[in-house]
Amino acid sequence: MAETKSAATAQGKSSNNIISLIAPVVCLLAGYLIWRFVLGAASNFTVGAENGGLFPEREGPKTALSKMYLGGIIVPILIGTLLTMLTFVVERFLTISKASGTGSNADFVRKVQYHLANKNVDAAIAECDKQKGSVGNVMKAGLHRYKAMMNDNQLTTDQKVMAIQKEVEEATSLELPMLEKNLVFLSTIASIATLLGLLGTVLGMIRSFSALGEDSGGGAAAAKLSVGISEALYNTALGIGTSAFAIMFYNIFTTKIDGITYGIDESGFTLTQSFASLYK
Question: Can you give the pTM of this predicted structure?
Answer without folding.
Answer: 0.85
